[in-house]
Amino acid sequence: MAELFGEEWARAWGEELAKSEVYRTAAARWEGAMIFFMTPDEALGIREPRRILLDLWHGVCREARLAREEDLAKVAYVVTAGPAVWWEILEGRLEPLRALMSGRVEFARGSVARLLPYVAAARELLAAARRVPTDFPAGWPATAG
Q1: Quick check: 144 pLDDT over 70?
Q2: Rounded distance between C-alpha atoms, residue 91 and residue 129, angstroms
Q3: Cα–Cα distance list, 115 to 10, 129, 130, 141 (Å)
Q4: Domains of the chain in sequence order
Q5: How many CA atoms lie within 13 A of 142 on its CB side?
Q6: How buried is residue 109: exposed, middle or buried, by Cβ count under 10 Å (0-12/13-18/19+)?
Q7: Is the dihedral of CA 48, 49, 50, 52 positive or negative?
Q8: pTM exceeds 0.70, yes or no
Q9: How does residue 28 score in pLDDT terms, banded at 50, 70 and 90?
Q10: DSSP 86-116
Q11: Percent residues over pLDDT 90 in the chain
Q12: Rounded to an integer, what distance in angstroms lies between the CA atom of residue 131 and that of residue 12?
């Protein structure tokens, strides 16, 4: 198992996307890199921000890794949330669109409107993340992992 939003976890997410014919088909016209940003939360063992870069190009994830500071200026989308929100999304207990509308997830770059044509691709993107065997940091609720 890989720790949530760590380097190994990012690579495993990319591998899940590579295996997904559903994603490949749904994202055939989607292009652009995204950063998924997890804000720190001491209580949940997240002391530093964690950022995953996915370089997405017409149904292919060309790269999945930890994002570097310089990546922030180059990507089309930066999606930000706290660890507890990401956990709820990855557990399937929180619908991402609902989280966006309620302000629990924010676009630091990009917009929901630009992603609307790719809702099916975004759903499969998150479904692939849910399939990654995840190790949660110390401090997470006992039901995590």
Answers
A1: no
A2: 10
A3: 21, 18, 20, 32
A4: 2-131 (3.30.1050.10)
A5: 0
A6: middle
A7: negative
A8: yes
A9: very high
A10: HHHHHTTSS-HHHHHHTTSSEEEES-HHHHG
A11: 67
A12: 9
Given a contact cutoff of 8 angstroms between Cβ atoms, the answer to whether 4 and 120 are in contact is: no
Q: Measure the CA–CA gap between 81 and 90, rounded to whole angstroms.
A: 12
Grouping H, G, I as helix, E, B as strand and the rest as coil, residue 26 is helix
Tally of CA atoms within 13 A in the half-sphere of 59 that contains its CB: 11
| Distance between CA atoms of residues 58 and 132, nearest Å | 22
Neighbour count for residue 108 (Cβ, 10 Å): 12
Contact criterion met (CB below 8 Å) for 51 and 70: no
- Check the CA dihedral 59-63-65-69 and report its sign: negative
What digits encode the pLDDT tens for the residues 43-89?
888 899 999 999 999 999 999 999 999 999 999 999 999 999 998 99
Tokens of 138: 């110390």
Instruction: Please check the confidence at residue 145 and state whether its pLDDT lies above 80.
Output: no
Under a CB-based contact definition with an 8 Å cutoff, are residues 105 and 96 in contact? yes
Q: What is the pLDDT of residue 113?
A: 84
Side-chain-side CA neighbours of 25 within 13 Å: the count stands at 4
